[in-house]
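Q: Predict the bound structure with glutamine.
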Amino acid sequence: MDIVKLSALEIREKILNKELSATQVVKAHLDRIDEIDKDINAFISINKEEALKAAEQVDEKIKNGEDLGSLAGIPIALKDNIVTRGTKTTCGSKMLEDFMSPYDARVVEMIKSQDGIIIGKTNMDEFAMGSSNERSYFGPTKNPVNTKLVPGGSSGGSAAAVKANEVPLALGTDTGGSIRQPAAYCDLVGIKPSYGLVSRYGVVPLANTLDAVGVFGKNVTDAALMLSAIAGYDEKDSTSYENSIDLVFEKGLEPIEYIKGMKIGIPKEIYLDEVDKRLKDHMDKVIKIFESLGASVEEISLPHLKYGLATYHVIATAEISSNMARFDGLRYGHRAKEYSSLDELYTNSRTEAFGDEVKRRILMGTYYLSMGHGRDYYEKALKMRTLIIDDFNKAFKDYDIILTPTSPILPFELGKLKDEPLTKDLTGIFTAPVNLAGLCAMSIPCGYIDGLPVGLQIIGDRFKENNIIKAGLGFEGGMKNGI
Ligand code: GLN
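A: Predicted complex:
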């Protein structure tokens, strides 16, 4: 049996029925990391000893006949902007190269309480700013589907780790698409939950009103299993959702039973000039699958969708400029060795330790918030955000889910868009509006075009995760059955 090829659910079942021990499972994944990570660069740090110790504890519990949590013995990787006590949290930046958090993020506590095993921390675009994982201080991550390609970003390390069978499950963060786009590029399932469903306590913020912690898995069931373990109210996060939802992920139904009767909207605005023409035909095939499974599919209009990315850009950079102020060389992070005044200490520390993209966003965000420009940019963006939210609210009165391609372009080669930052940013045109409106969405594999994986985005209303999970389960089954 090739342990690293098993799904998370299979691993859990085999550990619970004693076919495998948690120690065997963890060792197999650590060996896989040793074998392949030099080529992929998915990890920034590995928790070898702690992971083996945690596995022993799970095995001990099994021996003693104790109850185990939903993640029993499953190896899990965390994006390196989720703080962990005992392992450094770098955010992919020189600024936090040696930073050790004194506490665990809430999601880390939840994983541990469900007997999940944290294997290590994954590579990312610096401070989660990016769409290709080429902007990490620790070097780019490669896409295991084809190592010439980028894995997408900014949670590209987590996506690559799952795709390369280094772990069956991983967490990422998604502010404008950073889980869904790498999931699409690495041919995986990725879920960005509704804003507030998963605690952000202990997650280094990019843009607080948009950030969500979410999951990567090889299939919908695994992703839903991971999500259900980290969803829930947290009093330490003031934006946490107070009601709980029971996520469904029962297997075994026929695809049609998940999808029959579902009402699906396809925004007519998705075929913008920026969208790869090959995606249109592909989407038509995808729609036929949903129809053949008994869904009713109609064209809808989201008239403000086309302003989503510009709105995201202004709001996110404004929040970024204020969040980044905490890295001042005094409280934590890199401190310049040479300075002759307090101002110089700030300036030199930040100049030395932030990469170009971080600096670019701090400058733009500060400009959008500055006196005289706040009205022209920031306030306008807030108004547009409301119009975008209204568009979605109207659509969700009549439809259960909305479908779009996850990314307007297919995975590209490393270095190819180096001098085209705007093209890279454009990959968020269908994902960023979802964050602006606080909705939930999944990217799910929907075949290949010319050898490149394609992701389908399934968007659901706030806290209607069950709709996207059911649609995902049905579609996944439909694809497998070759409908
Ligand atoms: N590509 C987007 C950006 O660079 C997404 C970021 C994210 O979701 N963390 O802003």
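A: The domain at 1-483 is CATH 3.90.1300.10 (Amidase signature (AS) enzymes).
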